[in-house]
């Protein structure tokens, strides 16, 4: 297994990614299910939906663990790309079976992922969560670490290249390799 | 250009001995310092070899962030959003403190909630024999001889495992199923242990059992489907740990193996080191994790 410190650092980054960022929101209690439908291939404007699934749905699911989230992918490029939101009526009439008919249906063809998120928030009235002070601190730490490691990487690479160049020159001077000039 | 260089190279090798300096056509003085450098590098290359260790490197788990089962499941279910719940699995990796060259743990067990229950088993044996009824009782989907052959020849193969009773082997070989079943790896043969006399026991063993094995000091095994509730998963994990402890106890006294770290992960999520508790103080309720994904 990998050294535990670097393993934990990677894990912390991933957990921070799922807690903080676009999509960290809490739905009101009447939202009962979310279903996203799009094609497996990108042609025909299904790219935004896929990105929304990969980048934002995990955060939504993390903040709303009890709400089922379904992703259906079909093979038809001309087929629908839509986001269905199902709600249960908390008001008097509960005759309409909420599972069969979506309350809101958003067409997400040719729409990018942040626009989908905006639309979703507008339709459901979800509350967006701001990162807490600790999480902000952690984000700052991580950014700082990234900056430092980038600097170190350049330093190490320069040193290594210089070393290799020197060895190459030595070999050349000794006449061990014939392809220099 | 080229010949002059090839002429120089052998000369430089000659200069290793001290006599070469006296030679009138020896290369210039500039070569001498280079020679001394080469000697120096040869000397440094011959350092002592480090003795190889016979245990695996262990890290202090105090440095690891550890999670309760419910917390880990909360994260994992979020990482697995939108995946097919049938194809994604919870996995377990157990790190042991053990010797590199010691015996390894290897066993199979039945979990209380089997991971792969939808295995469809086909049994080839005379349809009205005792074996057929036994196989059906044990959970085989398709039992028979000629009807199975006909189905397969038409190209309908809706099973994942195929077992053949040793009495029906000849009949099956005559039917010529190898061309269809062979490429799928379903053709029964005694080499793979799928031609048996006790059909019922084999079917039972195949239905819910999973195998595990220690590799490089780590045991990995799938322990649950993604749709399991925290309680189901926890019984599975507990049963797995119990069997593992029994396996360790069965080893001879001189060999010590201890469980060092238990990690829960899934097909598309990072691994979470478990702290052995079911629920932490800040965990969400188990009801939230019990519903469909």
From TrEMBL, chain A:
Keywords: Mitochondrion, Ribonucleoprotein, Ribosomal protein. One of its GO terms (molecular function) is structural constituent of ribosome. InterPro entries: Ribosomal_mL43/mS25/NADH_DH (IPR007741), Ribosomal_mS25/mL61 (IPR040049), Thioredoxin-like_sf (IPR036249). GO terms for cellular component: mitochondrion; ribonucleoprotein complex; ribosome. It is found in: Mitochondrion. Residues 49-87 form the Ribosomal protein/NADH dehydrogenase domain. It comes from the Eukaryota. The keyword Mitochondrion applies. Pfam families: L51_S25_CI-B8 (PF05047). PANTHER family: MITOCHONDRIAL RIBOSOMAL PROTEIN S25 (PTHR13274), SMALL RIBOSOMAL SUBUNIT PROTEIN MS25 (PTHR13274:SF2). This is 50S ribosomal protein Mrp49.
Automatic annotation (TrEMBL), chain B:
Residues 274-293 are annotated as: Disordered. Coiled coil: none annotated. GO terms for molecular function: structural constituent of ribosome. One of its GO terms (cellular component) is mitochondrial large ribosomal subunit. The keyword Membrane does not apply. PANTHER family: 54S RIBOSOMAL PROTEIN L1, MITOCHONDRIAL, LARGE RIBOSOMAL SUBUNIT PROTEIN UL1M. This is Ribosomal protein L1. It comes from Polyplosphaeria fusca. The lineage of its organism: Eukaryota, Fungi, Dikarya, Ascomycota, Pezizomycotina.
């Amino acid at each position: 297994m990998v050294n535990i410190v670097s393993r934990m650092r990677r894990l912390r980054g991933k957990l921070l990614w799922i807690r903080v960022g676009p999509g960290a929101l809490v739905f009101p209690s009447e939202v009962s299910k979310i279903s996203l439908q799009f094609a497996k291939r990108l042609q025909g404007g299904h790219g935004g939906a896929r990105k929304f699934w990969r980048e934002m749905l995990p955060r939504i699911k993390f903040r709303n663990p009890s709400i089922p989230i379904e992703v259906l992918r079909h093979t038809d490029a001309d087929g629908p790309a839509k986001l269905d939101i199902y709600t249960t009526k908390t008001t008097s009439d509960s005759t309409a079976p909420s599972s069969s008919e979506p309350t809101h249906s958003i067409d997400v063809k040719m729409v990018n992922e942040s626009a989908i998120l905006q639309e979703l928030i507008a339709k459901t009235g979800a509350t967006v969560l701001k990162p807490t002070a600790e999480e902000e601190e952690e984000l700052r730490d991580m950014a700082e670490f990234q900056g430092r490691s980038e600097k170190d990487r350049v330093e190490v690479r320069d040193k290594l290249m210089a070393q290799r160049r020197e060895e190459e020159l030595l070999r050349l001077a000794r006449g061990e390799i014939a392809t220099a000039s | 250009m080229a010949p002059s260089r090839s002429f120089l190279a052998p000369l430089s090798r000659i200069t290793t001995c001290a006599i070469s300096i006296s030679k009138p056509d020896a290369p210039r003085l500039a070569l001498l310092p280079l020679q001394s450098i080469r000697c120096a590098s040869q000397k440094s290359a011959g350092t002592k070899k480090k003795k190889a260790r016979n245990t695996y490197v262990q890290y202090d788990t105090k440095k690891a962030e550890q999670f309760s089962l419910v917390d880990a499941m909360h994260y994992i279910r979020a990482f697995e959003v939108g995946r097919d719940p049938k194809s994604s699995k919870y996995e377990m990796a157990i790190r042991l403190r053990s010797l590199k060259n010691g015996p390894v743990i290897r066993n199979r067990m039945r979990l209380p909630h089997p991971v792969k229950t939808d295995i469809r088993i086909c049994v080839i044996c005379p349809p009205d024999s005792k074996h057929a009824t036994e196989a059906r009782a044990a959970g085989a989907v398709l039992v028979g001889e000629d009807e199975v052959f006909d189905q397969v020849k038409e190209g309908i193969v809706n099973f994942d495992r195929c077992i053949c009773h040793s009495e029906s082997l000849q009949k099956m070989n005559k039917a010529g199923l190898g061309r269809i079943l062979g490429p799928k790896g379903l053709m029964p043969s005694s080499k793979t242990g799928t031609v048996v006399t006790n059909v019922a026991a084999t079917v039972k063993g195949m239905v819910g059992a999973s195998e595990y094995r220690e590799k490089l000091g780590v045991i990995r095994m799938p322990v649950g489907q993604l749709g399991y509730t925290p309680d189901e998963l926890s019984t599975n994990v507990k049963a797995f740990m119990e069997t593992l402890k029994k396996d360790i106890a069965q080893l001879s006294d001189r060999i010590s193996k201890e469980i060092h770290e238990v990690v829960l992960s899934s097909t598309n999520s990072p691994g979470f080191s478990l702290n052995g508790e079911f629920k932490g103080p800040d965990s969400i309720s188990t009801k939230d994790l019990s519903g469909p994904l």
